Amino acid sequence: EPEVTQTPSHQVTQMGQEVILRCVPISNHLYFYWYRQILGQKVEFLVSFYNNEISEKSEIFDDQFSVERPDGSNFTLKIRSTKLEDSAMYFCASSEALLIRYFGPGTRLTVT
Amino acid sequence: QKEVEQNSGPLSVPEGAIASLNCTYSDRGSQSFFWYRQYSGKSPELIMSIYSNGDKEDGRFTAQLNKASQYVSLLIRDSQPSDSATYLCAVNKSGGSNYKLTFGKGTLLTVNP
Lengths: 112, 113
Fold this sequence. Notes:
The structure holds 2 protein chains of 2 kinds.
Chain A: E1 5-7, E2 10-13, E3 19-24, E4 31-37, E5 43-50, E6 53-57, E7 65-68, E8 75-79, E9 88-95, E10 102-103, E11 107-111
Parallel strand pairs in A: 2-11
Antiparallel strand pairs in A: 1-3, 3-8, 4-5, 4-9, 5-6, 7-8, 9-10, 9-11
Chain B: E1 4-6, E2 11-14, E3 19-25, E4 32-38, E5 45-50, E6 54-58, E7 61-66, E8 71-76, E9 85-92, E10 101-103, E11 107-112
Parallel strand pairs in B: 2-11
Antiparallel strand pairs in B: 1-3, 3-8, 4-5, 4-9, 6-7, 7-8, 9-10, 9-11
């Protein structure tokens, strides 16, 4: 069974610090996504990425956020200056086409 | 009005019973509908997708879609304790390559042995 992997599983950072969350999508997939879930809340779309560029982003994905596929295998989410409200579980996902079957296990980000 | 609405539960059923989970959505332009299962502390797992009105069956799971009523449901037959989880309804509006899923908050299902 193919799987999306994410590192680290848990990241603790201080407010105002930069964090980079890493994901390795499934190798033949073309579409990549970041979602987040604040504790007790719904899963929320952040951004989708296709053909080395952002294809869609939500209002949450402001200038503090960026995504990159630096080396053809990793897919990263950077938060430049973290806020307390960025504390959440961040899920990476990948898909071949129009169906998200696979989410990664998530990175729990705690901003103190 | 919330985009995707689900009863948060908890919904409690005995083992072997049918669990019925419901979801309504607000955008009539929605085209694709999904049910994900999420165990506590884990990531969502896709259970079913449905794109046209009617029923779609996969093993013990049946998804039902009624676009006129903007309603989608999931039936779980012969419920097992391992089915205990939060069930997330998700909707996609666009028919193109962009694939933004809008999730409901989920319904917590508990199956009692």
